[in-house]
Amino acid sequence: MSAPCCAGQLACCCGTAACSLCCKCCPKIKQSTSTRFMYALYFILVTLICCIMMSRTVATEMKAHIPFYKHICEGIKAGETCEKLVGYSAVYRVSFGMASFFFIFFLLTIKINNSKSCRAYIHNGFWFIKLLVLAAMCSGAFFIPDQDTFLNAWRYVGAGGGFLFIVIQLILLVEFAHKWNKNWTAGTTHNKLWYGLLALGTLILYSVAVGAVILMAVFYTRSEGCTYNKILLGVNGGLCILISLVAISPCVQSRQPHSSLLQSGVISCYVMYLTFSSLSSKPPETILDENHKNITICVPDFSQGLHRDENLVTGLGTALLFCCILYSCLTSTTRASSEALRGIYATPETEVARCCFCCAPDGDADTEEHVEERGGQTVIYDEKRGTVYSYAYFHFVFFLASLYVMMTVTHWFNYEGAEIEKFFSGTWSIFWIKMVSCWVCVLLYLWTLVAPLCCPTRQFSV
C-alpha cells in the first residue's frame, strides 16, 4: 500500500476526507455515493450480527468448537451459555444501539444544505470514530436497567417504526409507477415508438399479474378447505380490476390525462407478489385423510421439499430480503424520492424519456466540481454547490430500517422462540402484516387517482 493511499485512508477514518478504495484501477466514486455506501456497510454489519444472534445453528457450533466457552460466557457475565447474547432480547438491544445511532445523526443533520458546514464534515467523514461510537452504543444497550420494561416498550416503538418504513416503501412504489408512466409518456411527443413500449410494458405487467392469480389458485387452493386463500385471492384480484377501471375512467382521465394502465399494472403485480408472500407466510392448514393421518393442505407440494435444507433456504431468503431493504433505503434517500414523499414532483416539461429512467442522475450529481487523487481510487467531490440528497432524511430512513429489521428478524409479534432458521415458517402476525401492506398500497394508489376529484381547488401533479 502506497504512502499517499495510507494517508488517504487515515484521513477517511479519522478525518473529514471521503472514503475510497486503495486500488487505482477502480472507477471514480462520488463523495455522496461513498458516504452512503459506508453507512450501508455499518447497517449490513449490525444486521449480520442480529441474524447470528437469532441463529440456533451458530450458537450450537460456537458452544461445540470454542474452547472454554462456558468460562468465557461467565467471564463477560453473559450467563453460563451466553444466553444473554442470543435470542430476541439481544437483537432488541443491538437494534436499539443502531437505531439510536442513526436517530442522533438524523437530529445532527437537520437542515444541512451544503457540505462545507461542520455538521456535514461529521456526516461525511470520521468513519473509524463513528464505527467505535456505533459499537459502544450497541454494547451499552446491554447495560440498560430494568430490561423487562425496556424490551416491552421498545417492542412497540419497533412495531411503529417498522410499519412506517413499510408505508414509505409503498409510497415510493406508487411514486415509481407514476414516474415510469410520466417519463415514457413524455417521449411520445418526440417519437411515437414510445407508445409501443408503453403498450408492451402494460401487456407484460398484466400477463404477470393474471399468471400469478392462476398459479396461486392452482397451488394454494383446493375444492375442500383453504377458505382464507380463496377469499383473499378473490378480494385482491378484485382490487386489481378496480384500480385498473378507476385509472382509465373518464372522470380520472379528465383531471389526469396521463393516467394509464401502466401504473395500475405495476401496482397489480406488487399486489400479487404480496398476496403470494402472505399465503406463503400463513401457518399451514391440516386435515385428516382417509387413513386418519394429518396432512398439510393449501400449500404447494414442492414447497415442502424446498424446506428440507432449511439452512440453505433461510440463508438465501434472508440475504435477498435484506438486499431489498438496503436497496429501498438507498433509493428512497435521493432528492427526487424524498421530495416525492412530500408531494413534490418534476414537471412534465423537465422530463426526458429514458428506458432506464430510474437510473437518471440526481440533480447536480454529475458535475465534477473537484477531483481528488490520493494514490488510490479517484474521489469526485460532487457536493460543493449543495447536497445532492437530504442528509437528515437519509438517516431517518435508516433509523426506520433498523426497527424494521429488528421486528422482521424476531418474527414481529411471535418473538418467543423465534429463530433465524424458522425465518420462513408461517405465523399469523407476518401473514396479516403483508396482507394489510397489500391493501394499504392499493389505497395509496387510489388516493393519487381520486385526490384531484375530492379536492378540485388543489393542484396535484403525479
From TrEMBL:
Top-level taxon of origin: Eukaryota
Cell location: Cell membrane
Membrane topology designation: Multi-pass membrane protein
One GO BP annotation of this record: phospholipid biosynthetic process
Keyword Transmembrane among UniProt keywords: yes
Main location: membrane
Catalytic activity field: a 1,2-diacyl-sn-glycero-3-phospho-L-serine(in) = a 1,2-diacyl-sn-glycero-3-phospho-L-serine(out); a 1,2-diacyl-sn-glycero-3-phosphoethanolamine(in) = a 1,2-diacyl-sn-glycero-3-phosphoethanolamine(out); a 1,2-diacyl-sn-glycero-3-phosphocholine(in) = a 1,2-diacyl-sn-glycero-3-phosphocholine(out)
Pfam families found in the cross-reference section: Serinc (PF03348)
UniProt keyword annotations, A-Z: Antiviral defense, Cell membrane, Glycoprotein, Immunity, Innate immunity, Lipid biosynthesis, Lipid metabolism, Membrane, Phospholipid biosynthesis, Phospholipid metabolism, Transmembrane, Transmembrane helix
InterPro entries found in the cross-reference section: TDE1/TMS (IPR005016)
Transmembrane segments: 37-59, 90-110, 122-144, 156-174, 194-219, 231-248, 260-279, 312-330, 391-413, 433-455
Gene Ontology CC terms: centrosome; cytosol; plasma membrane
UniProt GO molecular function: phospholipid scramblase activity
Keyword Membrane: yes
Family statement: Belongs to the TDE1 family.
Protein name (Swiss-Prot/TrEMBL): Serine incorporator 5
